[in-house]
Input
Amino acid sequence: MEALKIWSLSSKPFTLRHLLHFASSSASLTTTKHSYSTHVLRCCSTTTTRTAGRNRRQSSSSSSTSDRDAIRALRLKKVEELRSKGLEPYAYNWDRTHTANHLQEIYKYLANGEESNGESDQVSIAGRIVARRAFGKLAFLTLRDDSGAIQLYCEKDRLLNDQFEQLKAHVDIGDILGVSGSMKRTEKGELSVCVSSFSILTKSLLPLPDKYHGLTDVDKRYRQRYVDMISNPEVADVFRKRAKIVSEIRKTVELLGFVEVETPVLQGAAGGAEARPFVTYHNSLGRDLYLRIATELHLKRMLVGGFEKVYEIGRIFRNEGLSPRHNPEFTTIEMYEAYSDYQSMMIMAEEIVTRCALAVHGKLTLEYQAMTLLQYEFYCRVYFICLHEDTPKTYAGFINLPLNNVSERLGVEICLERPWRRETMHNLVKEATAIDFNDLGDDLEVAKDVTFRTLGSGLEGKDKSAIAACPSVGHLVNELFEIIVEPKLMQPTFVLDYPIEISPLAKPHRRHVGLTERFELFICGREMANAFSELTDPMDQRGRLEEQVRQHNEKRASVASEADGADGKSKKDDDESYEVTLDEDFLTALEYGMPPASGMVWPSLLFYNFPYIYFYKPIMVEGNGFVPGTRNRQTGDAVDKLCKYPRCYCFSRPQDSAVDSIQRLGGLAMAISPTFWASGINTMVESGFDPL
Output
């Protein structure tokens, strides 16, 4: 037999009840030296494993093409059977009187076993069936609509004609039903609609993802958002919150006198940022056009034209990589105000964020990525270690996540009460590194030498490479800020006065040479807003943009010279090969004169608490046993199942540096041996094990 050890960090009894089902009654060991209590979960024997594996493959094969086609064919047959009985499975409409959430609110007074049979208590609702259970002459279905879910109590004697038989024969999970009936609360306390009649409004032809695994393929979730929203209704809440945020921003800036405008999406030159654009071809004009990479330059043209307060909520397109924080198509909210500077934009940023928080959450103190108590226990106390592979001593540091750091494990409390902290980038870097770059001057080699001598042992290889590649002291300061400081800025913080080298569109600081009047707002370790006192000097602007083009062309030439293989392509060809050109029309507009102004931009999706699964893909830390795409199937299948959980990190042989990183992130670390058969984990997951 294979066995799976679960180690908790204290000698207290293990309390996850749904795991104890798998625990051996006598499998409790104690390691005195480390004060661990041990629970051994017995998995299947080899023979049973093979059989269970086949059964599991059969039970979860609805996602396979053959079974999917078979289910679709069966449901198409049901469609024809319904039509042969004069029942149209794709209705025109349904007159509903209530939503699920409305019913939950109106009839919350009903006691267990009580039914409301008044004439005014006849209700009509509609929604998708997401669960069903049938017992002889009784069936329970769960109906979900846009507002929530409610149980349908279907009793044979209550339904008209032969509808109960129709329910059992023709209604599947995924179908959209309209139902009528009265309200009751079951003896177990579940508010239900006692169905007197129903109609199939839409017959679903394809099966939904199964109950426990759900739609766990992250790429597929983004490609098929409609299935994602059916399987995970919390996703729809994200869209609702986003709509509230955009609406609140619009209300706020319009109250302040801003005018909403629309600027071109197709542009002759991709300006306002340094990013690879999407390129298309205009047949009538006979020239290339670019999907915009920023709205900035056209909004500034509006200021030149006489508008004093303008904003745009628009889509941006950048032909770059994909990650949980980057998407080729995204929304920005950008605004400009004449006769103001970046100090004014800080006040506006505070106003907008606090208004959005009140609109979405109703308060200014928020929990960021807070866990439930069950999740907390799971993350802090449960660790999977293969019995025959490693000893507890090997993992002493690996599993030592402090239980007393409750605030870190249960989320971070974010206070949005004003005023917010304001600090310069140089001072924040100095606090974090003890290096004062103001004293080092502009000597890049000296600055790099001091950096490596002070921080070298604590830097990862990729960070060292990034620092070594910095072309100026300003770039170096910014690199250190992003590596060391940025992830720790949990409370609202305005980071001020960025180096001029990385701020080509910002006005020079009025008191400090080499800096600009620019700030970025950080909350929860993420950039929320970016704002400048805008550069209005046309000659200075031309010089900076020309320098930006020159630096890009140097990188491009350097990359082109590094041929990679016989095809002559560079290793970074896809990253650096695009062309950057000056937007001469924008420079011409500046020469007509733009008033003093400030501007601010932010992505609207960063205003609410990020869901664990939907916008954050669990990180796979590569070990000796497997790497993504090449790991062995048994371990890989287990990892795929477990990695649907948030902040879940899997290894075959964890390295100390990776373990330290996970502890800093507060994640769950799992050690899965290359020789460990995945059947144990599969059995746990498919039998209902779900820490969420």
User: Anything to note?
Assistant: The two ends are 28 Å apart (CA to CA). The chain has three domains: 1-60+371-406+627-692, 68-202, 240-369+411-420+491-617.
